[in-house]
Amino acid sequence: MLARMNLSRRLVSVAAFASLSALLVTGCGRKDSAEAPSATSAAPVAQAAVPPDITVLAGDNMKFSVTRIEAAPGAEINLTLSNNGRMPKNAMGHNWVLLTKDADARAYCMAAMSAVASDYLPPAQADKVIAHTSLLGPGESVTIKFNAPEEPGTYPFVCSFPGHFLSGMGGVLVVQ
Ligand SMILES: [Cu+2]
Q1: How far does residue 66's CA lie from ligand 1's centre (Å)?
Q2: Which one of 34, 41, 106, 173 has the lowest number of neighbouring Cβ atoms within 10 Å?
Q3: What is the pTM of this model?
Q4: What's the alpha-carbon Rg for the chain, to the nearest Å?
Q5: What is the distance in A from the centroid of ligand 1 to the CA of 92?
Q6: d(CA 28, CA 36)
Q7: String of DSSP letters for the chain
């Protein structure tokens, strides 16, 4: 619970920075907008510019340690998925797949069951995927960077390894 609150605060601070950046760009005029902000104007907010780092643990219990992520529209997100389990990858692999708002997470995972060759990311449903990690075995971790969708709403994320979503290995990204 506490970790989630901290995460929310960090996301809020990034949102605040994004707004501030927009103001700065507007204030500098068009000719400067394509360039990086000057050192003096960027320095006070540089700390807040660090993207939110979200670490999601996935283990042999088939649960994500984080099931709700909040982000401002378009916010840059660094997400690390860490498989802290011990079971072999072919029996207990994990990934993190963010789906579109209209996606049927259950249907996606049903299709994923037969997509062994593509690490359980069904090619026919690639248009339902906003961001995803690779499939991780025990002790592995990976970090992906992506932007939250611009459209406010609730976006499901799942582990698409067979049976895991149906066992509760999922969550939501709330864009607001
Ligand atoms: Cu899994």
Answers
A1: 13
A2: 34
A3: 0.72
A4: 18
A5: 6
A6: 11
A7: -HHHHHHHHHHHHHHHHHHHHHHHHHHH-HHHHTSPPPHHHHGGGTGGGSPPEEEEEE-TT--BS--EEEE-TT-EEEEEEEE---S-HHHH-B--EEE-TT--HHHHHHHHTT-GGGTT--GGGGGGEEEE---B-TT-EEEEEEE--SS-EEEEEE--STTTTTTT-EEEEEE-
Identify the CA nearest to 60 among candidates 82, 86, 89: 86
Find the helix or strand (DSSP H, E) in which 150 lies: none
Q: Ligand 1 centre and the CA of 88: distance in Å?
A: 12
Angle at 175 between CA 174 and CA 176, to 5 degrees: 110
Which domains, ranges and CATH numbers included, belong to the chain? 1-49 (no CATH), 51-175 (2.60.40.420)
pLDDT tens profile 14-55: 444 444 333 333 333 344 444 444 444 444 444 444 457 999
- 67 token code pair: 């099931």
Distance CA 77, CA 98 (A): 12
DSSP-derived secondary structure letter, 159: -
